[in-house]
Amino acid sequence: MSNPNTLLIRQAQILLSDGHFFLGDVLIQGGQITQIASNILCSEHSSIIDASGLTLLPGVIDPQVHFREPGLEYKEDLHTASCACAKGGVTSFLEMPNTRPLTTTQAALDDKLQRASEKCLVNYGFFIGATAENLPDLVTAHPTCGIKIFMGSMHGPLQVSTEAELEPIFANGTRLIAVHAEDQARIIERRKQYEGITDPAIHSMIQDETAALNATKLALKLSKKYQRRLHILHLSTGIEAEFLREDKPSWVTAEVTPQHLVLNTDAYEKIGTLAQMNPPLRSPDNPKILWQALRDGIIDFIATDHAPHTLAEKAQTYPSSPSGMPGVETSLPIMLTQAMQGNCTVSQVSNWMSTAVAKAYQIPNKGLIQAGYDADLVLVDLNTYRPVLREELQTKCGWSPFEGWNLTGWPVYTIVGGQVVYEKGKLNTDIRGKALRFRE
Ligand code: DOR
Fold first, then answer.
1. Which CA distances in Å does 26 have to 79, 101, 104, 371?
2. CA 51 to ligand 1 center in whole angstroms
3. N or C: lower Cβ tally within 10 Å for the chain?
4. CATH number of the domain at 60-360, please?
5. CATH 2.30.40.10 spans which residues of the chain?
6. Per-residue confidence band for 2, with pLDDT thresholds at 50, 70 and 90
7. pLDDT of 435 higher than 90
8. Looking at the DSSP assignment, which residues form a beta bridge with residue 294?
9. Phi, psi (rounded to 5 degrees) for 339
């Protein structure tokens, strides 16, 4: 008899939880992985995927995205962003609080969770944003992956940059604090210094490496003072990585974006303001140091910082052009292409984009292919190269900094909770993800 809750994946190269590959079958029942074996005989299955030639990885968990809903839906919304996720093999995301209204209260968090339950094809979690005034909300908000602090590159109430404002947040409560570490006072000073320059390349000079290092040092100092769980978002410079190499307490983690690994300041010449983001792209010597820090475990995992803006907004002259670039539907192929080129292994990519994220954010049952784990999976094709094409993008902003890049490792199937949400270019928009849980 057919069982609608059963899915059998046949003859995939399966990345096992020990980091090794195994050619075999995976049985999924009721949304969970129930068996992994070389040949599973199952009579009651309703669906079979022939995965010959494909590689099965845990679904990507992207721990830093800006999906713009509510309030900025003209750039992106939770539905379009989750479609982009499904196409990119991203089965869960953690979203940032700079929406309108800001996600700084329990009510705003509840509203996002409700919206996501109605429109997201993949699993979701949300940060609560720190202001100088919402300490009680930061301590009690639930469920949330953590507190987001914009130490720099923000305006309005989410900008929390002085030590006096930051200290009470680190001193009260125990949940994870994730920081966008840039020194706002320094940025303001340097903005004045470079006023009138419209070449977007100046962005990397204004928000320079020292601005990033200063803020990272301050966050680390406060984290050490209170032994407070700290995560450093989108670490962008070699000097920060080397600083952490010398002094990184066991309760501190750091992430890097694919764009800070594979792009540098040369990109301004080619794609202008499309390369503008915060923290900015760095000079070519930085990515090399970031790669080494990632391979050495100084940097723990990868996030895209998917931050879409319309092409019309990006076409404005610097500094009116907004910072940010989309990333969820290219991050896995970008990283797997790097693996195929020998910069790292496929197993490392999967650790950085799934296993280590689930561990750091204490998301139960995700990030590994193992019996008992949730069936959030992606089957990728590591044999074919295809370019990033604007017309195929799902993100509402409709562009990518990687257009024209010839990549491998494109998802062929994406599976969320045992359901196929993306198959060979087609999305199943009837599927809904679930709210992520976080062990606190
Ligand atoms: O470039 C960026 N843009 N970096 C961020 O951290 C925020 C983002 C946005 O929301 O546009």
1. 29, 43, 41, 9
2. 37
3. N
4. 3.20.20.140
5. 3-57+370-384+407-427
6. very low
7. yes
8. none
9. -65, -45
Where, residue-wise, is CATH 3.20.20.140 in the chain?
A: 60-360
Q: Ligand 1 test: best mutation among 184, 278, 396, most atoms within 8 Å of CB?
A: 278
Name every protein residue with a CB atom under 6 angstroms from any ligand 1 atom. 66, 98, 180, 277-278, 305, 307, 322-324
| CA 48–ligand 1 middle distance (angstroms) | 41
Per the structure block, which two tokens stand in for 171?
């001193």
Ligand 1, atom nearest to 154 Cα: 7
Report the percentage of the chain scoring pLDDT > 70.
98
Residue 82: per-residue pLDDT: 99
Q: How far apart are the first and last CA of the chain?
A: 42
Mean pLDDT of 105-117: 98
Index of the ligand 1 atom closest to the CA of residue 234: 6
Quick one: tokens of 237? 């410079």
Identity at 62, one-letter amino acid code: D
Long-range contacts of 33-40 (CB under 8 A, 24+ apart): 33/369, 33/370, 33/371, 33/372, 33/373, 33/374, 33/375, 34/371, 35/371, 36/369, 36/370, 36/371, 40/8, 40/10
Neighbours of 79 (CB within 10 A): 20
Architecture of domain 3-57+370-384+407-427: Roll (2.30)
pLDDT of 1 above 60: no
